[in-house]
Amino acid sequence: MKHVSILPLYDATLTSIDSSYQLFSRVNDFMKYQGKPPFYKIEVTGLTKSTKFSNGLYKISTQMTVNQIKKTDVIVLPLLCGNFKKAIQENKKYTDWLIAQYHSGAEIVCLCVGSFYLASTGLLNNKKCAVHWAAKNEFKEMFPNVKIIDDSIITDERGIYTCGGGYSYLNLLLYIFEKHLGREISVLASKMFEIDIERKSQNPYAIFIGQKKHGDELVLKAQELIENNPTETLTVDSICEKFNVGRRTFERRFKKHTGNSILEYIQRVKVEFAKKYLETGRKTVNEIIYETGYNDIDAFRKIFKRITDLSPIDYRKKYSV
Q: Three-class SS of residue 207?
């Protein structure tokens, strides 16, 4: 039997704590129906016997305190909300225990932006971490030693599991069940809770937000030029000529500060422009593509699918309002 400790972190969402507790508990029910013993012992494990959430709106009773848990097998870090820096500070009292448990063999299952706290412990240094697309820039600034993964929903590295995207933690829990008990139990949980087990990528949901907290004025001007002219046929050469800079040097400079090449930045801005029209407009897909400044329709369709994992037509079907 694996012991599961769900930590009611400061600024955690009550939903992610309860969902984790319910899913692990239901897996035990599945085992019971199959005539097998329960696989998990699940306990909400806090610093004290009760924890308040949402400015005192909710209170949760913990079953154990960390001081009482000498050895655990799985630690669940719930999704956080609000001010990440404050949450990190308030949750520091868990850190020594968390690190000690990990080095004693415990797996860490980190839900979405609970990764801000996990990264603050140093356990994610030089490891991959799935980060919600909206939090990517802030996370990168705070934790430059972590390898950000912003397209995949789940990462799995040396006993630490992370996920990006609010309720993608449900997919992460299915992944954990498959690791521990096999595909059959994971599929059963997917069916019972109606969770899309095949959801693997954040790309269809992401909104492009350029990294601008770098302080390089010339790169900022280039970003603004691209963002303010999504219908123009901009090229890398034309941008470099406008700012009177050498292409090779400026491309390295741009990539260093934004995480994208100049060409990638142009493409992402144009895709974002097209997405808005696909969501709300009535123009044909080809008309929208032409408005982005592309004459080669097939080329833009390929770029669009590479960035979003969907064709323009499928994107319109999914998100049109």
A: coil
